[in-house]
Amino acid sequence: MKVIKIKRNHFIWYIVKKELAMKRKDAKEIILLSILIILVSLIIFSPYLINHMPLTYGTDIKPQWFEFYTEFENLINQFFETKQLPFYSWNLFLGNNFYASKSYYLMGDIFSYIGLLFPLQFFDVAQILEILKFLVSGLTMYYLLSCFEFKSKVKMIGAIAYTFSSWAIFFSGQLSFLSFYSWMPLYFAAIELYLKKGKKLLFPLTSMLLLFTNFYFFFTLSFITPFYYLYRYSLVKPNYKNVVKDTLILVGCYLIGICMTGILTIPTASYILQNDRVGQFSLQLFFNQISIYLHELCARLVPNYIYIYRTNIFETASHTTRELCLYSGVLSALLLPQVFSDKDKRYRKNTLIFYLFLNLFLVFPVFSSVIHGFSSNSFRCTLILIIVQIIIMSHYLEKIDSLDIKNLKITTVFSVFILLTIIPMTAYIINKPVIDYVNQIILFIMAAFFVVLNSWVILKKKSYLLLLFLLCIEYSLSGLTLYYSRMKSEGISYEFVDSVTHVLQDEDNELNEFLENIEPINPMQYYRTYIPLEPIYWDFSHNMSLMVQLQGTMTYDSTYAPSFNKMKKIAPQVKDYESDWIFNIKDPEILKFLSVKYAIVTDSEQLPSGMNWRLLTDNYRSGLLVYRNDDYRSLGVTYNQIKKMNELEDGNSMSILMSHVLCNEEDYSEIQQVMKSSNLNELENVKYAGNHLTGSCYTDDSSFLVLSLPYDAGWNVLVNGTQVKTYDVNGGFIGFGVSQGENQIEMYFTPVGFKQGAILSILGFSAYILLISCELLRAKKIRRSVYD
Asked: Rounded distance, CA 100 to CA 391, Å?
């Protein structure tokens, strides 16, 4: 017994020493990897840092993310002051369910909350967060490759390749996109841990984290997961004997993760499923433009994000098919074809099938439409292709001494040939002069040089450190080129940002205080203010009302209130730039309906015509003109006429919004029954803040009150303490019946599905705690059996 005990103690000590040594080695590698990522990031961002300019790279960071983040910060601060949850935003276009609509952008993203810790200007916070996300991307990818048990240098190369891939660089301007990307390797690591070691705890946790971060990409990831899981199962497991049991356990873990997010995702689903972008399913089998397929042929070989929004021979005039991000370093493109000559038949066959399957989403629009949430087709799903490419690349880097040299040479020659001929060939096919694409040709020649250089290193030197160095150079140069070109063409100064955000006020709510003091009645009214985009906001953004806490009349927001789709249909003039999610309301009748009371302009010609404007001051902030609309009508007005929406004729004047209740056919009889008063009455004594609104309305008989707030089933309306039914009327606005006499109206907002989601989250977390307990007991039994 004593001998057995001594041997067991020696064995335990040996295991502990080995684990400590491995942890010390990993710690050194992680520190080195972190230093490399930060250095490459600083090189990429150096144009902005050196020129002291705000990071405005990305289509939407200036007109959307800046403003949405500002409102997010305001609502979080409001929560700490008033303890009201950040559900409703009065400043977001006409009033909006911020909690559900901005889960896509902010609400579930951990990095959004980390950003609040930095008392800096938004663009500085964004830059810090982008570097942090690059760092997290590298570390999570390093961990994933550790689960595959690759060599340390292989893991570092793979981590750098993932951190600065074309997808990461191109979408770094979309803050939540990069957030999702940075956590995604943990999801694949969780699958690997489950298949190899039976560990289950990470999978629910990463499912929860990713779904919280971005539901849109999580749908794509979930769609691919069964195929990836079966692919890895076929390589890890000796057979499919237990596949049903193993799969059901993992599905259960997945569902636990989904349930834990219910408090946010149930309200979000209730909201987003009403968006008119959902359901734009494409049945198109092939792309009409051959240039898309030619671009796919070379996109893995060249950092194409440099030219996507510039002189681009593969231009498609659509951002969804233009944004083709497949590049994960030249090394990745060179080693991927090794799979064709792999001597392991099982690995070769299964990997080829799975990789070709992923590429079907690039070839057939109908498939990309499915993976895009059954909406319009898009190439954004390539983030999964990137991670798979790097895993395959790492597999062959691991056995660099036994690569198929003939395969590598053929790949090198073919790649160089494609890079040198693809632009002239495309120019010939689309009948454009090749001379117009000189810059693109130079970029492709440089890419060919890196192909040859990497191939030479593999063939002659076989040095991991040199390959790592070349990869860092590739990404540094391409990223620097992109950010420099964007800064030169689109960059703005801190002074400009400060000026445009302080045109109307210097301190928060200064403009609102000024307007409230113009008339004594104003603190008891709800009103909107018309401000032209170009002269006042210098064409900076349609969301500038968020920067001055103002109820405005325009927005650029793909998650606007779904009920507004009806207004968009009956009054298409509300759209700006012919976009389905950019609105700038200038129609005088609609402005009157929306309770617009003031306008701030630099010249009277900027005022919407057909309204009764009266000048109040011509010297607000040293020169701005402030006008009052003398036809102002209250936020709520009762009606005595009604018309069905489907009876509206084309060309109807929008004045009908103020004379008739426009309702759905099924609501017609119910609404008509309460419209007994012949008089028109207004909502008075209006108070609103956070998630509630109160007011009063006197009527001589029962009537129907319409509020120019977007309809949302989340509004709980009480009239004299009794809950009443609300209706979607007048192009997507809220209406309800009021009784004879004095009506005290109270409205409270809670996102649809929030309570049910909260219950689901409690159940999910309870299930996860139970799973942890089971796993701890299982681990204890395994340790006991090993030691015994």
From this structure: 35
Select from 206, 192, 181, 145 the least CA-distant residue to 382. 181
For the chain, what is the largest distance between any 2 Cα atoms, rounded to a whole number of angstroms? 102
Exposure letters 137-167 (e unless 16+ CB within 10 A, then b): bbbbbbbbbbbbebebbbbbbbbbbbbbbbb
- Give how far the C-alpha of residue 300 lies from the chain's centroid of Cα atoms, to the nearest Å: 24
DSSP result, 421-481: HHHHHHHHHHT--GGGGHHHHHHHHHHHHHHHHHHHIIIII--HHHHHHHHHHHHHHHHHH
Which residues are CB-contacts of 294 (< 8 A; sequence separation ≥ 6)?
Answer: 314, 422, 425, 426, 429
Sheet of 726-729: strand order equals 636-639, 703-710, 733-738, 726-729
For 613-712, where are the E strands, in sequence order?
613-620, 624-629, 636-639, 642-644, 661-663, 684-689, 692-699, 703-710
What is the C-alpha to C-alpha distance for residues 99 and 268, in angstroms, rounded to an integer? 8
Q: What is the mean pLDDT of residues 728-733?
A: 95
Confidence of residue 22 (pLDDT cuts 50, 70, 90): low
| Backbone CA torsion sign across 677, 681, 683, 684 | negative
Which residues does residue 642 pair with via DSSP β-bridges, in sequence order?
A: 661
Half-sphere exposure (Cβ direction) of 695: Cα atoms closer than 13 Å: 26
Give the per-residue pLDDT at 275.
78
pLDDT tens track for 290-314: 999 999 999 999 999 999 888 899 9
3-state secondary structure of 554: strand
What single-letter DSSP state applies at residue 174? S
Instruction: Give the residues across from 89 on adjacent strands.
Output: 96
- Residue appearing with tokens 């999964």: 384
The values of phi and psi at residue 684, to 5°, are -125, 170
pLDDT at 485: 85
Mapping DSSP to helix (H, G, I), strand (E, B) and coil, where does residue 179 land?
Answer: helix
User: 538-552: per-residue pLDDT in tens?
Assistant: 999 999 999 999 999
Q: Which residue bears the tokens 């990897």?
A: 33
Domains of the chain, CATH where assigned: 33-275+753-788 (no CATH), 506-629 (no CATH), 636-749 (2.60.420)
> Are the C-beta atoms of 687 and 693 separated by less than 8 Å?
yes
Q: What is the dihedral of CA 610, 571, 269, 689, to 10 degrees?
A: 10
Q: Give the phi and the psi of residue 688 in degrees, each rounded to 5.
A: -145, 145
Residue 630 DSSP code: T
Given a cut of 80, whether residue 25 has pLDDT beyond it is: no
519 backbone dihedrals φ, ψ, rounded to 5°: -130, 135
**What are the backbone dihedrals phi and psi of residue 643, each rounded to the nearest 5 degrees, phi first?**
-150, 145
Element (H, E) at 600: strand 596-601
Alpha helices in 599-685 (DSSP H): 656-659, 668-674
* 180-183 contacts at long range (C-beta below 8 A, 24 or more positions apart): 180/210, 180/213, 180/214, 180/217, 180/218, 180/383, 181/133, 181/137, 181/383, 182/133, 182/134, 182/136, 182/137, 182/140, 183/136, 183/140, 183/209, 183/210, 183/213
The owner of tokens 């408090």 is: 263
Q: Are 325 and 449 in contact (CB under 8 A)?
A: no
> Of the candidates 764, 607, 705, 770, which has an alpha carbon nearest to the alpha carbon of residue 211?
764
